[in-house]
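hey so i finally got around to running the thing on that chain from the lab meeting. sorry it took forever, my laptop kept dying and i had to restart like 3 times. anyway pasting the input first so we r on the same page abt which one it is
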Amino acid sequence: MITPQKTITLNRVNLENKCYVVTLVWTNFGQQTNLIDRAPYSLMRMFKVKPMRPEDFVFATELANTMNWNMATEDFQFMKSLEPDGCFILFDGSKKVGIATCISYGKVGWFGNFIVREETRGKGAGSLLVKHAVDYLHGKGVETVGLYAYPNLIKFYGNLGFRFDSDFSVLHTPALDGVSAGALPIVGTENIKCIEKFDRTCFGGDRQKLLESIILEEGNLSYYVSEGNEVVGYVASTVYETMAWVGPLTCQEGNVDAAVSLIKAVLAKLAGLNVYVALPKKQGAIAQLLSSVGFKEDFSVARMYSGPVAAKNCIYLAESLERG
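ok and heres what got predicted. didnt touch it at all, straight out
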């Protein structure tokens, strides 16, 4: 007896500059029985992207830490709290093989935490995952998507429509020495709206949900500088038990003195901790300050954008590589 079949043309794919039509023939039992046209066997592989669930946090953390990202499940919980539908798992059939996260800030979005298992790379799965996240952001009204790319991925992202903007250094000191600093006002609930408004003018997007989750969290640090009644700069730092990340910082272009005073104010509270910071390489005065207190470059990344560049020329420290 001949089993009834149906033919489904899935997609056109480009492999080594040749276009193949991938067609699967399925039986009425849902089993794949044949792959026709001229597509190679490897294209039978079925990649798909699904929303990340809490039960995926352990997998996401373990995969991320194969890259020495020093992440915990709480990092993905935090991302889900900020952007509940913006965290993704890549599947090869039923096997989890990749992760990515993104966050929307109005007209600006950010992409990060992107990793695909090594044995799955070079097969189109990573491109699928990036495009899925970018499409999600566009659906939220985002016009500009930013990311930080490791040097070996600049060409990959370029092929997906991202353009180089500037080079960043990720600096680190394993045990920060004591730093002297003058007293600065603390950002609190009474003035955070002014900080958010100032941040929008520099970053180009509305980071309210991110800033409030950091600045208003007990144990974190935040300071600002004003001239007259106008904010000219602020800094925040996320502080953990043994380590801290300094950023975001945005400061009026050219106001290096304000930026230095803000950074010193935070560093003065972080003595003995393992401290990280990411800044544009062109910010020589800030890099010199950090070097003088023991920071050294761990690695570099390139900031890239898809869509119009929204950020203005301000003095800047990244909040993180995954959120901008």
